[in-house]
Amino acid sequence: MAHSQPLRKLVSSTDLQQDHDDKLPFMLRTVRTDPDTLQRMKDEQVVDLIRDTDAEISKLQALQLRAIADLSVRRRRAPSAASEVALALSVTEHRAGAIVAAANALIARLPRMLNLMDDGRLDLYRAMKVTDATAWLSGDHVRVVDATLEDRVAGRNATQVRRAAAYAAAKADPDGAAQRTEQKLMERRLVLHHQDTGVTHLSVNNAPTEKATAAFVRIDRAARALKTPDESRTLDQLRADVAMDLLLSGAGGPSERSEVFLHIDLATYLGLNDFPATLAGRGPVAASVARRIVSGSDTTLRRVLTDSRTGQVTELSPTHYPLDPAHDEFIRVRDRECRQPGCTRPAQTCGIEATRAQGEAEEATNRPVTYCSRHRKLKGQPGWDYEVTDDGTVNVETPAGRVYSTTPPSMPSGPWRANRYRKKPRK
Predict the structure, then answer these.
(1) Closest listed residue to residue 175, CA positions, set 270, 294, 287
(2) How close are the terminal C-alpha atoms of the chain, in Å?
């Protein structure tokens, strides 16, 4: 059976082993012979080693996927191929089946993603986020997504890769995305799963995104109100208890309307295009779903002006009062999510923390930025430094001297802005 991308020529197992032995990285040999090597290294050297080994692991995973795809072809893509892989890797057949499916998809449908793995820029876990998000696309559409994502997934975490892939897939085939959402909604159900330890897992599967998000916001708000200094329960425990109280008696929390942020461009709202919208904290939703949310009886529309060049929020229309640019609501709409690189916590559940402006003294913390509770604590830890540039970019310096940067998110039609990484220049 032919592949859209031919398998690269492989050397014999004997030659491969010899090559591996001959070219074993110096650091690996050193650490094996002298375990104290790592302790003598500087922070930045340890971080470099972590990054370098991750790149090598990705390259090996790409080679392994090619071998798995080749085995699948030899077995005529029979389900038994997954059983062989499960035995070879000592994993469950469910996991093996997912890996086999990913291997076949990367070889036949997503060759650019596989090439990123070859280059050490994308690992298997993140690559599988792409294969999962594009499994429903036709061959023509998936090729478009593969090309679109080539420059957008390296250096991004799994959640960001999943969102990018889902957005690109929905944009490539908006009709298919809408049909897929409707099909999933048809499959919504309440699931009760009793566990052996005397507890039970209760979940609502395939609920409408906007309703599930609003329900979680309401539960979270009530739980946080109960988290007093005298309350021994954790926030997670309080959320679970509030949810159960609401289901059983309706008295588990306040009844006020909960708020979620949907970012949709005007053309999509008017039906002039079918670009996906973005639900803060969740990621892309199909244009038809976004228009359904917007048309709801409890929906409140707010005009948000964006810079035509960058797509970033520059103004939020006032409601009953003039809105100062530093107002909390403007900051949360602008930032959309926690500004820590890679964090996707919705801004409406985050706090606003004054942050030092670039070039200012350490005590000059006058730039308001949203951070979730975890990263507000991290911001105050020794060795971590945060600053905000004039264009709103947040630079985060780690104790190892690495600097990671994010900009305020733009509307999807604006330029793509990935998290950026660089080494801090030596003084």
Answers:
(1) 287
(2) 57
Give me the long-range contacts of 300-309 (CB less than 8 A, separation at least 24).
302/333, 304/263, 304/333, 306/410, 306/411, 306/414, 307/414, 309/414, 309/415
Task: Provide the β-strand partners of residue 192.
Answer: 202
pTM above 0.85, yes or no: no
pLDDT band at 258 (very low <50, low <70, confident <90, very high): low
In sign, the C-alpha dihedral spanning 74, 75, 79, 83 is: negative
Instruction: Give percent of the chain with pLDDT exceeding 70.
Output: 78
What does the angle CA 226 – CA 232 – CA 234 come to, to the nearest 5 degrees? 70
Helices marked H in 153-208: 158-172, 174-186
In tens, the pLDDT along 285-326 reads 788 878 777 766 666 666 666 666 676 777 666 643 334 545
How does strand 351-357 pair with strand 385-388? parallel
| Cα–Cα distance for residue pair 131/138, rounded to 1 Å | 13
User: Could you give the 3-state DSSP secondary structure of residue 374?
Assistant: helix
Burial 82-95, CB ≥16 within 10 A → b, else e: bebbbeeeeeebee
Spatial separation of the C-alpha atoms in residues 413 and 156, rounded to whole Å: 19
What separation in angstroms does the CA of 125 have from each of 7, 100, 130?
21, 13, 9
- Residue 285 is given by DSSP the state E
In degrees, to the nearest 5, what angle opens at C-alpha 8 toward C-alphas 127 and 123?
A: 20
Which phi and psi angles does 349 have, rounded to 5°?
-105, 5
Q: State the residue for tokens 């099909």.
A: 183
Give CA–CA dist 22/288, Å, rounded.
57
